[in-house]
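I have been asked to look over a protein record a colleague put together. Alongside the sequence sits a line of tokens, each denoting a local backbone shape. I have pasted the whole thing underneath without changing anything:
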Amino acid sequence: DAVSACALVAEMAAVAKAQGRTLYEEMQQMYAEYGLYVEDLISLTKKGQRGAEEIKEMMAELRKNPPATLAGSPVVEVRDYDNGKITHLRTGLTESTGVESSNVLQFITEAGDKISARPSGTEPKIKFYFSVKEPLASIADYETTHKKAEAKIKSIIEEMQLK
């Protein structure tokens, strides 16, 4: 929970300080080692009975015709939490998600990006979550790489015709 997370962050800060580094420097080092991840969310409101139908149609279309590529990277995996299957597109092999059923779709690209689609259960909207990864060659390249990741998200939104 949040208290445990705060305790871990405090411990990380103490260890970093003992090594003469800041928590921010530690974070940048992790980005350099594992890549820079940037996330975003868009929410599309579709009101009324017709809106509910549009949301169902959007999810059905994404299931029937998942994107082949996103931001130039092949989609290699589709996770359909409604039917409980993960499909590996290169091989056609499937496996179980291993979790309870939920009306969520995820598309994973070869580059490590993840796009999730989820209709709201209580509101007339559908949400799309974007998590993109960019390699960070050098900590000095942080700002440029972050902007590149943001541009990638924008590109995916346009490709999926969500705006």
Notes: Residues 1-34 form one domain. The beta strands are 36-45, 69-70, 73-80, 85-88, 94-96, 105-109, 114-119, 125-134. Helices lie at 2-18, 23-34, 48-64, 142-159.
